[in-house]
What does this fold into?
Amino acid sequence: MTKASAVVLDRVTKRFGNVTAVDAISVDIRDGEFFSMLGASGCGKTTTLRMIAGFEFPTSGVISLGGVQVERIPAHQRNVNTVFQSYALFPHLSVNENIAFGLQMQKINKSDITKRVAEALAMVQLTGYGERRPKQLSGGQQQRVALARALVNHPKVLLLDEPLGALDLKLRKEMQIELKRLQQEVGITFIYVTHDQEEALTMSDRIAVMSAGKMLQIGSPTEIYERPATRYVADFIGEANFLDGHVSAVDGAYTVVTLDNGVALPGIAQQTVSDGTAVTIAIRPEKLRLTVQPTDQMICLPATVERVLYIGSDTRLTVSLDNGAHLDVWEQNNRSTLDRDAYWQKGERGFVWWNPDNALILPA
Amino acid sequence: MINAPRPLHTPPRQASIGTRLLSLHAGSTYVFLYAPIVLLVIFSFTKDTFGVRWTGFTLDWYTKLFNDQRMMSAALNTLWVAAVSTVLSTICGTLLALAMERYRFRGRDGLDALLYMPIVIPEIVMALALLAFFSFSFGIFESLTGITLRMNIWTVIVSHVAFSISFVTVVVRASLKGFDVRLEEAAADLGADPRTTFWRITLPLIIPGVIGGALLAFTLSLDDFIISFFTVGPGTNLLPIEVYGRVKRAITPSINAISTIMLVVSMLLVFLSQFMQRRADER
It folds into this structure.
């Protein structure tokens, strides 16, 4: 990447009393990037965002914005803007006055302010709502005002703290597309905090998966989903089957893992692992296939259907292998039929198989 | 119609006697509360010189009042005390409320409990305490500098501030309870320094509470007798004290008239204060 850094965190740590909220995080966020921090509540993602905004100062470590060290500079002197989870619109000011607030602080002349506020309103498709109070707007409209109020200042970096959390599902999907469009249009670096993996996967250029104050993995949505670095990441993003065992051999491109019940399965290891290492094999359920007849695939195991969940686009099956292990298998419903026999039934026997390229060997 | 079936959902009739007794009770309570006040107001307009019988309508007592130099100077003093003590106690009380709501500091819980003392303790105790405080500190001041200080209108003002701060703080804190701190963060995020944030965001949002507290402080100061009586010193005249002094000699309709005016002013202020707080709650 030749692009310059927008935000650099270098071993940033934040402790509250004896609780470590953020633990020595280092990351380099590039100019114009849509960067998401994804994690369960309490993983440190919001604290990290608040330190970039300047609402919290790190206990140790360095934060740079556009090459300038800022970790001791208060929020009002930093060239970043935030969209808050609850929007935090000023209730006593009109929509126009809310959006103009940042520009007034920069002492920009009145006619320019009027012009830029109107542009910002148009950008979020709220032209004509300028005289209203925030209370008179719907949740989605308030969200757009919050966005306009931040973007009107042309910040170097826009920080978004679960901005779609309060919206209903349909509106949230619309706003995801809208946000991505805006980000590409204005070319500002977005740092986005969310606990919703789908939101992170659809919008981000890169995602940092966070847990217990650390960034476990930083990568593109496909890297995160297809090549999770740890079991936690594989489990947190999407769903996965996990099979525990030990490395027993290396066979060409594949590493062979012998499961605790004696079955040997090949898979892909991202680093070389020595024989005898405890590992887990992770396989996504949509990458497993269940067929009536055995196939000539490398891996093809007899199985019994234990549970069937029909969800429309897919049928989600749980099968048990003859050695007792359970696997989730998602079968796409790509035929349109009402014939009951076309679908798997509980208790039916079949063969579950997969391509060993989809079996990821992760540290246990 | 004969034997028309009664609608099923008519409320049972026997409840009405209880309801009537209840209304009677409520009515008599109000008579008990307001009859003396109504009489006071009525007898401020009577022609009777002793102000106890109705002998015809007149506004003479009010005009007499406005020509009464002594009464007018007492009224002006009282207004001055109320105005100055309100401004001081509103500023101190608002800042105290902000400190108590926003910050966690050592001794905060103790301070919180002590804050309500001036509201709870008997006024006479507060008055004696203030009197003791002034004589003690004036004594020390005199032995150090040789200058003798006496109690005057400023000692009353200081005393009124001392008890009003608690009331202002309680009212302002209530309006800070629902205040979203993220609004201040949002202002900082948009480039407002802490002072600008206070004037443009925090104060406009809590101003109904602040005005409510100020009106309460003003009313309390206008009405106060006991604390003023103990801390005023010989030279200064205040309205409640002047009224008390005259009543000792004779009740005249003039007293009724000045009381009516004080009553109207106090009630207006209380209404205004309630109105401001309701507006604050609607936010």
